Amino acid sequence: MSKNIDKAQIEQGNAPENADRRSFFGKSAILGAGAVAAPMTAAMFATMAKAKASEAANSPVVHPGELDEYYGFWSGGHSGEVRIMGVPSMRELMRIPVFNIDSATGWGLTDESKRIKGESAHLLAGDSHHPHMSMTDGRYNGKYVFINDKANSRVARIRCDVMKTDKIITVPNIQAVHGLRVQKVPYTKYVICNGEFEIPMNNDGKASLEDVSTYRSLFNVIDAETMEVSFQVMVDGNLDNTDADYDGKYFASTCYNSEMGMNLGEMISAERDHVVVFSLARCEAAVKAGKFKTYNGNNVPVLDGRKGSSLTRYIPVPKSPHGMNTSPNGKYFVANGKLSPTVSIIAIEKLDDLFSDKIKPRDAIVGEPELGLGPLHTAFDNKGNAYTTLFLDSQIAKWNVEDAIAAYGGKKVNYLRQKLDVHYQPGHNHTSAGETRDADGKWLISLCKFSKDRFLPVGPLRPENDQLIDISGDEMKLVHDGPTFAEPHDCMMVHRSKVKTKKLWTRDDPIFAETLAIAKKDGVDPMTQNKVIRDGNKVRVYMTSIAPNYGMSEFKVKLGNEVTVIVTNLDQVEDVTHGFCVTNHGVQMEIGPQATASITFIADKPGVQWYYCNWFCHALHMEMRGRMLVEA
Ligand code: K7E
Ligand code: CUA
To answer: In angstroms, rounded to a whole number, what is the distance separating the alpha carbons of residues 273 and 348?
Structure first.
């Protein structure tokens, strides 16, 4: 969600009681309200307060030396990275560079990371949005975390045993990968993601800006193991967010701009957009039967899932829906209204009938509760409650799903349980394990786009504010403010019992397998030998490291040589990481215990050039250095 939308609102003031602020976007609110239930009155809130039974009582305190209960995986937003947080302490445990470059680890600089980045190795920027872990039978399995790069249409995979990125692909035929989730059941065979911006098919320079009839947005289905695009589905409108069911049958994506407008006015003219539901079995069958086309000179099968196709169904929902969230009991898809104050509840059990045309698309909607202004994303607990971020109201609305369905059916019930002020303008929110069958109703994170007055001012650019909310009782309780950098869009929380990480690298790790293959060709055993291989203008320098020494304290190259330094860390001690850094060359990397890492640069400066270990490893770490002589 862009920050731009909020400018006018911010100018109107921040105070929650500010009437102008509440009425911002009021027109859309009224238009979208239709015949849904009336908003909460003060009297209703009072009744709720009386009925209060259990208090939120989770402890957010994690004492020094104690460990957190959850791993939180945070998108780093436009920093392009992923971060691991401890929850509930909200301590940042690690940063995983993905689409960015990182001088601490050498990500984007080392030969290994460049191989993983592949054809996009020259791109040094990224905009990461949605980190989601692979699952088995609807539960996190601790194997991979996938994340999209909206800026460069990429999808990356992080291996959770070492917490390093091990695959990055650029998705063809689309621009801007946005919503990303995984197949939950029976296991994550596929990663699903939306191509957001509609582009001409083919996009070969022959299309015009005026005739947009060939502009399309594609839904992408990626094989989680091979990280190849299995197929794409062409749709009407442009895709935003997505999620999968708990039956292994359907995926659903929100679509805004069903108008196919090319500017803001055109994009928000229609009162209704839609949710596209994809039948996985029908799509797979169509690929098998060869019922696809290819575009832009690549061989990725593109299925036609536009209106009228048997592969998809279009469910009309109020204008410009954003988030798409599956309830952990597997019963509902919830599409979040954004420009409508409502969310739309789609009954997954009705989708079979929808696909066999026994019911009409709107018949799949079983509830459309009105929650407040700017609903963006919804999270769930294990007690049938949902938590929806209200971007414009700067609140989280807690509501009961079955009560909202009953109200839609005409019953006089109050589905709203509580509204909690958050600070400010929340985008995503997430509950502990809430996108899995293990949803436990303990914690809720609200990722707020603005922090305004919540922290010491640090100049015109402020941090975002990730707030921790205890949802274990009947009422949500805000317990922590956490400043973060560069707009974490989304996050998820995985119980620590699901994650098993390695303490040392194993020598057969695929991340450096190719480097070891090159060593083999050179006849060098990098575990035992320190050796310089001269290969025309190329020089490969193999050296070991064991605290506080490199296996080679000097070597010579010629001016202009392309030098590759391959360092193997022989230490078998947990947490003893070495670095390799050449002064004045932009050469810097991490070599974990038992790992091999390599980096290539041009020796373009004559004379003595010191290299040193840049990760503190030993009392004599400062002395861990050597000389490269560049002969003119
Ligand atoms: Cu709502 Cu990219 Cu998930 Cu931002 S998206 S908020
Ligand atoms: Cu090795 Cu510092």
So the answer is: 19
- Ligand 2 site, residue 621, Cβ cutoff 6 A: yes
Model confidence band, residue 27 (pLDDT cutoffs 50, 70, 90)? very low
- The pLDDT assigned to 21 comes to 39
DSSP bridge partners of 575: none
Distance CA 186, CA 95 (A): 30
Beta strand extents in 510-624 (DSSP E only):
531-535, 538-546, 549-550, 554-558, 562-569, 578-582, 587-591, 596-602, 607-612
Ligand 2 pocket member 570 (CB < 6 A): no
| Cβ pair 601, 609 in contact under 8 A | no
pLDDT of residue 47: 52
Sorted by where each starts, the structural domains of the chain and their CATH numbers stand as: 511-630 (2.60.40.420)
Q: Are 371 and 38 in contact (CB under 8 A)?
A: no
| Backbone angles phi and psi of 403, in degrees to 5 | -65, -35
CA 615 to ligand 2: nearest atom: 2
Atom of ligand 2 minimally distant from the CA of 548: 1
- Output the six-digit token pair for 27: 């027109």
Whole-number Cα distances in Å, 213 to 172, 236, 295, 313, 406? 20, 11, 16, 21, 42
Whose C-alpha lies nearest to ligand 1, atom 6? 427
Question: Predicted confidence band at 24 (pLDDT cuts at 50, 70, 90)?
Answer: very low
Summary mean pLDDT of the chain: 92
- 616 Cβ contact list (under 8 Å, min separation 6): none
Residues 39-58 have pLDDT tens digits of 555 555 555 555 556 888 88
- Comparing CA positions, the residue from 171, 312, 166, 296 lying closest to residue 253 is 312
Nearest CA to ligand 1 atom 5: 1
**Dihedral, CA of residue 229, residue 231, residue 236 and residue 241, to nearest 10:** -50
Ligand nearest to the Cα of 618, by number: 2
Atom of ligand 1 minimally distant from the CA of 489: 4
